[in-house]
């Protein structure tokens, strides 16, 4: 073949890649995630600015979002399962971006006319605007959840086909996109708001979502056209055959046959519901439909073979050892400035990307389930540094200081203890005439404690993201197509539940002296999560969990991640 022929072949290969369904999914996900990250960062800043630098609106928004996904996760997933893929993706895309655009326009009006709105009807118009912003933003988040389930948990699986290695590569690439946009998108919108204004920031985000919505809509249609399998949802027999090819392990401990253990619970519920004629359905019956869907979704999740694997991932959300507002606030109390924190966040992102790359390599060598076990041990080993940091020089950890001291101070104000008790009791309790002097904490003599803390957090990101990808692919491969949406919806609800509990834990013990206790609790929950995964892995592989794969077994471990428990 001549040079021109070889060059033409290379050009064709390049063109085929950039026009493939896989690349188009990457492009659409990058645009969607970029808009999500900008909005999630900006809406918190906007709410703080609107309410006089108070965190009240931000806290209410976070509580509403977490509670909504917790209650509606299974219902959203069931809606994804029962409707055509293209309709679900397009509807979720339009609702999500339309709500963000509406919120942006509403916030622009509030920023522009805040003084006038404050005077109208004693401020009730402004309060109504706050409620509308939080409500519409919550609807946008629910639509984003549906979009995430549809694309990342369903479309990716169909595009990958029966190729487990291709599915792992696509999951890793999607996660790398998440890591990059999580750092770059807030930086962009932050600079726009810093050099412009909040009004300009709202306008930029609204314009971005409008343009992005049109491009994403076209990309979805292209992917749908290039992947005919997306137009058809497999029947029950085809789903069972797909499970046998991807993951032949069944729940033998419960005495179930392979056919019995793979029966879709949600389908059975649907069949019973369909058997009832419309005349038999009363108004109360129809109103209770969401409750039945919610219950059936959680029951289906509990009966999955990968239940303990999914639960282990949810337990990792019960932690303060992440780069969120809590850890950032603690770092400020320990003397770290914004410049150092930005460098640490960059290092955390690089560590996360290394974890996604390590996932694909370890999985090819050891198989999917062993990859999760190795990743969990790596994460837990790194988090030991965080526990050590609690007891090293420079740590403010002090059990003699009440964890509720800050709450008590906010309740009684800045009064001395005798004055506060006198005001609360009306002077009916006699206090000592002299109070013990409060001992102030000495200034931090060393950065050893906070350095060990962040070293452990950053290093643990490698194992964390590798483990997250492992559980994600286990759910993708072991859940039948007709339940894929509802199971992932319940998984999101579990994640939000544990995340909500970790915020409650911080509210109960907010002072820096108690942060060490929160670190120990967080590591304990991570350890419990990995113990659950160990149970799942040992039930799937037995003693072979600790054995290295031979060259012949490596291929089998890659293609069939859930090997039988008997040799």
Automatic annotation (TrEMBL):
It comes from the Eukaryota. It is found in: Basolateral cell membrane; Membrane. Its main location: membrane. One of its GO terms (biological process) is intracellular iron ion homeostasis. Residues 243-274 are annotated as: Disordered. InterPro entries: Ferroportin-1, MFS_trans_sf. Residues 254-272 have a biased composition (Polar residues). The chain crosses the membrane at residues 55-80, 92-111, 123-143, 306-332, 338-361, 373-392, 446-464, 514-534. The keyword Ion transport applies. Keywords: Cell membrane, Ion transport, Iron, Membrane, Metal-binding, Transmembrane, Transmembrane helix, Transport. The keyword Transmembrane applies. It is a multi-pass membrane protein. GO terms for cellular component: basolateral plasma membrane. It holds the Pfam family FPN1. GO terms for molecular function: iron ion transmembrane transporter activity; metal ion binding; peptide hormone binding. May be involved in iron transport and iron homeostasis. Belongs to the ferroportin (FP) (TC 2.A.100) family. SLC40A subfamily. This is Solute carrier family 40 member. It comes from Astatotilapia calliptera.
């Amino acid at each position: 073949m001549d040079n021109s022929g070889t060059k033409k072949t290379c050009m064709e290969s390049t063109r085929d890649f950039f026009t493939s369904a896989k690349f188009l999914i990457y492009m659409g996900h990058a645009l969607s995630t970029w808009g999500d990250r900008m909005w999630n960062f900006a809406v918190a800043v906007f709410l703080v600015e609107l309410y006089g630098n108070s965190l009240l609106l931000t806290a209410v928004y976070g509580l509403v979002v977490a509670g909504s996904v917790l209650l509606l996760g299974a219902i959203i997933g069931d809606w994804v399962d029962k409707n055509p893929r293209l309709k679900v993706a397009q509807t979720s895309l339009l609702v999500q971006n339309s709500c963000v655009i509406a919120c942006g326009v509403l916030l622009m009006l509030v920023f522009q006319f805040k003084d006038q709105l404050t005077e109208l009807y004693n401020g009730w118009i402004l309060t109504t605007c706050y409620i509308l912003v939080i409500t519409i933003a919550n609807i946008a988040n629910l639509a984003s959840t549906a979009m995430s389930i549809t694309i990342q948990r369903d479309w990716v699986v169909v595009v990958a086909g029966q190729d487990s290695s291709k599915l792992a590569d696509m999951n890793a690439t999607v996660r790398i996109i998440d890591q990059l946009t999580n750092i770059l998108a807030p930086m962009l919108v932050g600079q726009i708001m810093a050099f412009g204004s909040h009004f300009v920031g709202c306008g930029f985000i609204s314009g971005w979502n409008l343009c992005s919505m049109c491009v994403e809509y076209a990309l979805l249609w292209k992917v749908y056209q290039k992947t005919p399998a997306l137009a058809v949802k497999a029947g029950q027999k085809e789903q069972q055959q797909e499970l046998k090819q991807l993951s032949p392990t069944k729940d033998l401990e419960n005495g179930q046959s392979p056919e019995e253990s793979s029966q879709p619970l949600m389908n059975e519920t649907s069949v019973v519901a369909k058997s009832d004629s419309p005349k038999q359905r009363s108004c109360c019956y129809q109103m209770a439909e969401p409750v039945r869907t919610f219950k059936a979704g959680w029951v289906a999740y509990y009966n999955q073979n990968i239940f303990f694997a999914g639960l282990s991932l949810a337990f990792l959300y019960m932690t303060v050892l992440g780069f969120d507002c809590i850890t950032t606030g603690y770092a400020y109390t320990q003397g770290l400035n914004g410049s150092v924190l930005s460098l640490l966040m960059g290092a955390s992102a690089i560590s996360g990307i290394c974890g996604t790359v390590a996932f694909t390599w370890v999985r090819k060598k050891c198989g999917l389930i062993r990859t999760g076990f190795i990743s969990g041990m790596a994460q837990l080993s790194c988090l030991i540094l965080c526990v050590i940091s609690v007891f090293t020089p420079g740590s403010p950890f002090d059990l003699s200081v009440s964890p509720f001291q800050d709450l008590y101070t906010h309740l009684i104000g800045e009064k001395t203890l005798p004055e506060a008790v006198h005001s609360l009791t009306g002077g009916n309790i006699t206090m000592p005439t002299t109070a013990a002097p409060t001992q102030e904490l000495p200034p931090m003599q060393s950065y050893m404690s906070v350095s060990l803390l962040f070293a452990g957090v950053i290093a643990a990101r490698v194992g964390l993201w590798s483990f997250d990808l492992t559980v994600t692919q286990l759910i993708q491969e072991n859940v039948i197509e007709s339940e894929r949406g509802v199971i992932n919806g319940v998984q999101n609800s579990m994640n939000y539940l544990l995340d909500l509990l970790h915020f409650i834990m911080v509210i109960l013990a907010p002072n820096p002296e108690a942060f060490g206790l929160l670190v120990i609790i967080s590591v304990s929950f991570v350890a419990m999560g990995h113990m659950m995964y160990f149970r799942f892995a040992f039930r799937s592989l037995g003693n072979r969990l600790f054995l290295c794969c031979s060259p012949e077994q490596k291929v089998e471990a890659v293609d069939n991640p859930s090997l039988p428990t008997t040799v």
